[in-house]
Design goal:
single chain, alpha+beta, two-stranded parallel ribbon, 14 strands, Pif1-like_2B_dom, ATP-dependent DNA helicase, 5'-3' DNA helicase activity
Length: 392
């Protein structure tokens, strides 16, 4: 007779879920490393009462942060790595209080290996002052060798971490200028945003549903100047199709949920071939504004747009200028729940990314005009002639 341990079928999913969760937690513990963050000459030291004097006379113990400074001073590869990314290519030796290069994993370069490790700096409230600004600098500056280097921006050593953050453009600064911002939009292109709203709620929030609409005087454009200047039959056909689509007059196929569009153009095998066909020899033709006006690439998703823009920008021979947005929560009490790096990772439709790379000669589109003048208008295509640190 054979005896076996049998359990009810409803217990099987429980054991699978619990064991799988425990395995994930153990795997996360092995890959996630908590990184110390302390101000200069502020370190937690634990000692017994009878050896207090000996501890006071001894040198302060090394931490993951101070050892990171020493690593950046002696290791050329670490000089290009952020503090939070160090665990990917280095392991922390708790007994020796030093960072050691990984010996296994994906090879990045000769003698450097990378693993799926995570470094985490505990979130800090902006109310804690210098600690918050120091954390912000550590998340933005790769390869610092000291606290003083973190406060040094463009050769100038600032007195506080906050001043260094302001110099790097990591914080809002109202001292530059004060201006009034005017926001305008085309309701046909950008509908009002109603959280969890139905189609009827969105229509009700449009300008046409306002009591002021009867006071608005409408002017209709009758000639598509872009098509007229091109004298291209295909462009005229495409423009007419867009008008019919906007008026809800497009042909449907089998069901009103499907829209039949005309077939334009020639398929391309990949993005590189598409870029070469639309923008051939862009490195020598980017200064030809007429040549640029005749070309554009449309994409259904913002990720595809960002990828195409990045590939085209790399082909321009001019210098890259990087600009970062300032993101913060309205209520400082919620800053711990929503750290700055999380806010920076959010990409909002209709707004530039957190890190914006620009080059002189690059064509850009004006999303929002902050001038109360007829020109420039939202959606105007412009050419970058100069990249400055501040804009007035």
């Amino acid at each position: 007779m054979t005896h076996q341990s049998c359990q009810a079928a409803n217990k099987l999913p429980y054991h699978i879920i619990v064991l799988d969760r425990k395995d994930r937690e153990l795997d996360l513990d092995r890959k996630c490393l908590s990184l110390k963050m302390q101000l200069e000459n502020f370190k937690c030291v634990y000692f017994k009462e009878n050896i207090a004097q000996q501890v006071a006379n001894a040198a302060p113990p090394a931490t993951t942060l101070t050892s990171y400074f020493h690593l950046c001073a002696t290791d050329a590869f670490a000089q290009n790595v952020l503090y939070v990314d160090i665990p990917k290519c280095y392991t922390w030796d708790a007994s020796k209080k030093t960072w050691q290069r990984r010996k296994r994993g994906r090879q990045v370069e000769v003698g450097v290996y990378e693993a799926d490790a995570i470094g985490r700096i505990y979130t800090i409230s902006p109310k804690q002052g210098d600690c918050f600004y120091l954390r912000l600098l550590l998340l933005s500056i790769p390869g610092p060798t000291s606290f003083q280097m973190l406060r040094t921006v463009n050769g100038t050593t600032h007195d506080s971490y906050r001043d260094a953050c302001l110099a790097l453009g990591l914080l809002e600064d109202d001292n530059i200028q004060d201006f009034t911002r005017g926001l305008c939009s085309d309701s046909r292109q950008i509908l009002p945003v109603i959280r969890q709203g139905t189609r009827a709620n969105i229509v009700d929030a449009c300008l046409k549903s306002s009591s002021l609409w009867r006071l608005v005087q409408q002017y209709r454009l009758t000639t598509n100047m872009r098509v007229a200047l091109q004298a291209d039959e295909r462009a005229e056909m495409f423009a007419n199709k867009l008008i019919r689509l906007g008026n809800g007059e497009t042909d449907t196929v089998q069901s009103p949920d499907y829209v039949s569009l005309l077939n334009f153009g020639t398929p391309a095998e990949n993005i590189d071939i598409l870029l070469d066909r639309i923008y051939p020899q862009i490195h020598s033709n980017y200064e030809n504004h007429t040549w640029l006006m005749q070309r554009a690439i449309l994409a259904p998703h913002n990720d595809s747009v960002s990828q195409i823009n990045k590939l085209l920008a790399e082909k321009l021979p001019t210098q890259t200028h990087t600009y970062t947005a300032i993101n913060s929560v309205v209520d400082e009490d919620q800053a711990v729940q929503f750290p700055v790096e999380f806010l920076n990772s959010i990409e909002v439709s209709g707004l530039p990314p957190h890190v914006l790379d620009l080059k002189c000669g690059m064509p850009v589109m004006l999303l929002r005009s902050m001038k109360l003048l007829p020109e420039p208008m939202n959606g105007t295509r412009c050419i970058i002639h100069n990249c400055n640190r501040h804009f007035f």
